[in-house]
TrEMBL record:
It comes from the Bacteria. Pfam families: Carb_kinase, YjeF_N. (6S)-NADPHX binds at residues 58-62, 124-130, 153, 252, 302, 346, 413. This is Bifunctional NAD(P)H-hydrate repair enzyme. Signal peptide: none annotated. Residues 10-210 form the YjeF N-terminal domain. One of its GO terms (biological process) is nicotinamide nucleotide metabolic process. It catalyses: (6S)-NADHX + ADP = AMP + phosphate + NADH + H(+); (6R)-NADHX = (6S)-NADHX; (6R)-NADPHX = (6S)-NADPHX; (6S)-NADPHX + ADP = AMP + phosphate + NADPH + H(+). HAMAP family: NADHX_dehydratase (MF_01965), NADHX_epimerase (MF_01966). Binds 1 potassium ion per subunit. Residues 217-469 form the YjeF C-terminal domain. Bifunctional enzyme that catalyzes the epimerization of the S- and R-forms of NAD(P)HX and the dehydration of the S-form of NAD(P)HX at the expense of ADP, which is converted to AMP. This allows the repair of both epimers of NAD(P)HX, a damaged form of NAD(P)H that is a result of enzymatic or heat-dependent hydration. Catalyzes the dehydration of the S-form of NAD(P)HX at the expense of ADP, which is converted to AMP. Together with NAD(P)HX epimerase, which catalyzes the epimerization of the S- and R-forms, the enzyme allows the repair of both epimers of NAD(P)HX, a damaged form of NAD(P)H that is a result of enzymatic or heat-dependent hydration.
Length: 474
């Protein structure tokens, strides 16, 4: 499990650990891990040109001490000190002793133009979003010359607790973070700004407590994927009912059912008008068409605006059974949901639900997913490159496995079927949403292999992804 914490929790853990250790120990642990990660990034230190950009806090200190270590290994390391009066003195002394030097402002452009790597030590967890002068002018030069950036702890300028980027910020290829993941490294747009994230263990673990945000990894997903036992039969494995598609949108029915049959349930029921029913029957002979008992429902994709289907959605939502509500179904939510409900909007749908602009949701994904979960008393899975799943009790999971080719028409219909199948097999909405999102993206990896895919390819790849995660044969 990848776990992320608020800045306050990380600060508290840092205080508790620091009380046990000689002063400066944590900064040296951080700098050592950072220097090793930079050396790996560069593919060796000797002769590499490194520019450290050091702000006024300990983040700058980490960067300067790491610069000193790289200089001792043969790199040519210079530093841009953003404020001479407030810079970490020990860090500057260590760098100059190791053979590095501090640049004068008229040397910045030439040094950055010739750099193999820029180390972003402008601000860390003490930073407010945005960059102040002269950091913004230095970033102009870095971007103009397209120099790769390794961010120290966080990419400077992001909102560390939310991943929001309301103002100018660094875009890193690699972020080397200390002690624990910060929420802003896992949630977009901050996650994208961070690039790859490498965690350096500095010993905070025992002091951190419960995480604020979690991201499942392959072994966590494998533990949660339902598997039948020898005693299982089709009903005990779970039955999922799918209410999707219409005369106009027949594909939504086929794709949502395709996701559902690829999941762990023993049986799928489809309930819909004649035309999509014909398509579903032709494609999935194992699917039972018509009403009957189920353990969970998937409702919503491609329903159109038939009032009878809207009533059906309301009736299902009032049944108390676990329900996944997607797309058109989201227009028929009650004032507050009762029972286990998983809503799966994309950003535009969530914006409509909450009465805000789509851009606002893009900018504040975690905030609006949490707000909707609290508002409707339901778990909200906000689709996107880093999927956010927020439960009404405040727990949050994000999915960081992301394949851009998965963003294709009908992909969400497949996801709804997969997650609904997991709900019917007994997972609660937070588990079904987070496991389903991981499974869906893993299917995307297998189907795409670096090229374009259709939603149908995705559904067909789900069983192989399931098998792979369970450790079965390829
Ligand atoms: N936690 C741990 O266990 C460990 C933490 N360690 C390291 O310590 C780092 C935290 O250090 P920190 O507390 O000194 O704060 P930091 O982020 O360097 O910057 C604060 C300074 O920046 C300024 N400033 C603020 N916003 C700004 C902006 N937008 N643009 C420009 N400037 C801005 C602000 O100035 P002020 O607003 O006060 O004028 C303040 O002086 C942490 O990220 C990690 O790298 C490791 O060494 C070891 C273990
Ligand atoms: K930084």
């Amino acid at each position: 499990m990848r776990t992320a914490y608020t800045v306050d929790r990380i600060r508290a853990a840092e205080q508790a650990l620091m009380a046990q250790l000689p002063p400066g120990t944590l900064m040296q642990r951080a700098a050592a891990g950072l220097a090793t990660a930079c050396a790996d990034f560069l593919g060796g230190c000797y002769g590499a040109e490194v520019v450290v950009v050091a702000g006024t806090g300990d983040n700058g200190g980490d960067a300067l001490y790491a610069g000193a270590r790289l200089a001792r290994r043969g790199a040519r390391v210079s530093a841009i000190v953003l404020d001479q009066a407030k810079v970490h003195r020990g860090g500057v002394a260590a760098l100059t002793t190791a053979g590095g030097w501090v640049l004068a402002p008229d040397e910045y452009a030439t040094a950055i133009a010739g750099a193999d790597l820029v180390l972003d030590g402008i601000v860390g967890i003490g930073g407010k979003p945005g960059l102040r002068p002269p950091a913004d002018r230095v970033l102009d030069l870095v971007e103009e010359h397209a120099v790769p950036v390794v961010a120290v702890d966080v990419p400077s300028g992001i909102d560390v607790d939310t991943g929001e980027t309301p103002a100018r910020h660094v875009r890193a290829e690699l972020t080397v973070t200390f002690g624990a993941h910060k929420i802003g490294l896992l949630v977009d747009p901050g996650a994208t700004a961070a690039g790859l994230v490498h965690l350096v263990d500095i010993g905070l673990g025992p002091y951190l407590g419960e995480p604020d945000v979690e991201a499942l990894q392959a072994d966590d997903v494998a533990e949660r994927l339902p598997e039948p036992s020898r005693a299982s039969h089709k009903y005990s494995r779970g039955v999922v009912g799918v209410v999707a598609g219409s005369e106009q949108y027949t594909g939504a029915a086929v794709l949502a059912v395709g996701g559902a049959v690829a999941g762990p349930v023993g049986m799928v029921r489809y309930v819909g008008p004649p035309e999509p029913t014909r398509y579903v029957r032709a494609r999935w002979p194992d699917v039972v068409c018509g009403e009957g008992r189920v353990q969970a429902w998937v409702v919503g994709s491609g329903l159109g605006d038939d009032p009878a289907r809207a009533d059906e959605v309301r009736r299902i939502l009032a049944s108390g059974l676990p329900v996944l509500v997607d797309a058109d179904g989201l227009r028929h939510l009650p004032e507050r949901c009762e029972g286990p409900v998983l809503l799966t909007p994309h950003e535009g749908e969530l914006a409509r639900l909450l009465g805000v602009e789509r851009e606002a949701v893009t900018a504040r994904r975690l905030h609006y997913a949490r707000a909707a979960a609290a508002r409707w008393n339901a778990t909200v899975l906000l689709k996107g490159a880093t999927t956010v799943v927020a439960a009404p009790d405040g727990r949050v999971r994000v999915n960081t496995v992301s394949v851009p080719w998965v963003a294709t028409a009908g992909s969400g219909d497949v996801l709804s079927g997969v997650c609904g199948s997991l709900l019917a097999a007994g997972l609660d909405p937070l588990e079904a949403g987070s496991v389903g999102a991981y499974l869906h993206q893993t299917a995307g990896v297998l189907a795409s292999r670096g090229g374009p895919i259709t939603a149908d390819d995705l559904a067909r790849a789900v069983p192989a992804a399931y098998r792979m995660l369970l450790g079965g044969d390829e």
